[in-house]
Design a protein that fits this description.
The chain contains 15 helices and 11 strands. With 490 residues, the protein is α/β, with parallel strands linked by helices. β2, α4 and β3 form a beta-alpha-beta unit. α2 runs antiparallel to α3. The longest helix has 25 residues. It is globular. The model has no long low-confidence stretch (mean pLDDT 96). Bound molecules: glutamine. Glutamine (GLN) binds next to β4.
Amino acid sequence: MELTQLTIDAIREGLAARKFSAEELVRAHQGEIERKDKDVRAYLSLSPERALEQARKVDRQIAAGEKLGPLAGVPVAIKDVLLTKGLATTCASKILKGYVPPYDATTVARLESAGACVLGKTNCDEFAMGSSTENSGFFTTHNPHALDRVPGGSSGGSAAAVAANMAVASLGSDTGGSIRQPAALCGVVGMMGTYGRVSRYGLVAFASSLDHVGPFGRSVRDVAQVLQIMAGRDPLDSTSADVPVPDYVAALGGENDLKGVRVGVPKEYFAGLNPEIGANIEKGIDLLVKQGARRVDISLPHTDYAIACYYIICTAEASSNLARYDGVRYGYRAPEYSDLHDMYRKTRDGGFGAEVKRRIMLGTYVLSSGYYDAYYLKAQKVRTLITRDYLEAFEDVDVIVTPTSPIPAFKLGERVDNPLEMYLADIYTVTASLAGIPGISVPCGRTKGDPAKNEPPLPVGMQILASHFDETRLLQVAHAFEKAGRFEAA
Ligand code: GLN
């Protein structure tokens, strides 16, 4: 049995039947990391002791015949923007080098209480700002399907770890697409729940009104199981919603999950994208229709303004959130300075990378007096219009289907010099973030590739969106789609 390719269900059954121990499972994943991560570079740091300790605890529970947690023994990876008590947390930024948090993020704590084993912390774009993981202050992560390509971002390390079987599941954060887009580029499933569905306590803030924590997995069912553990009100996060959490996992797999489901296809999401991706998504929609869903062509008229609106709001919030890195409270401090101001300046200059600085400047500008109304306030109004587009659409449809990304995994270095082009990688994901609705990306075939150019077939992701707090429907449709069969490139 290949211990690094199991689903969460298979792990549960295998442990119960004593086919393997939790320790063997963790060690198998550590072996895979040892073999592959020198090429993929998904992990920023490893926590072997923490993972093994937890695995041994699970094994003792099994020996004693105790009831196991729902994620008992499941090896997971955590994006390095989530706080882990006693384990360095850097946000892939030099400014947090040496910072060791005194507490765990709620999501990490919930996963560990359910029995999951934390293998380590994964690489990402610095403070989750980016779409390729190339903005990491430390090194770049490579796409396991094509090592000369990006894994997407900002949660590229978490997506790559799952794609390369170096973790069963992982956590990422999504502010404008950072879970869904790397999931698409790495050929795994990635999900963001409704804003407020999952606690942000212990998630290092980038843009608080947009930030989400969510899971990656190799199947929809695995993702549903991880979300199940994390979802629900957290008294430590006042924006976490006090909305009952249904049993997502039990809701999966009904014979008629797609019967009569109205699938909205917004025309704005099919213009100007890579034609192979468009063809794959069309094939995916046909597959849904074949299973009994009904296609409804819709329009989300304010989509065109989404990138501009998102980059005003997220930079505004980032400029405020990142003011706390001053060399006094956390991590790095410039070694030499003349006075307090000089210390702030040198610390922030030496600690932050170019993209973070760009966003702090942009955000400070759009919030400054005289420009606030023209940019920030205007963007907030546009955000409302984008949200309304969705609310109106969901009066006529149950889910909305789009490509996750307009392009497949691009070559490392291809877009780093052009921030605007990089921003466009999120064109299909930022709208759901602005509206606060849940979204998932599921594998939807591959591109053909071109052997003459040494281009392998690359994963394509289909994004499914649902109305606020309708994660159950989202997961049902995604699961039924996955079950209907992965198909060959269009
Ligand atoms: N790529 C987007 C950005 O750079 C989204 C990032 C994210 O979701 N964290 O802001």
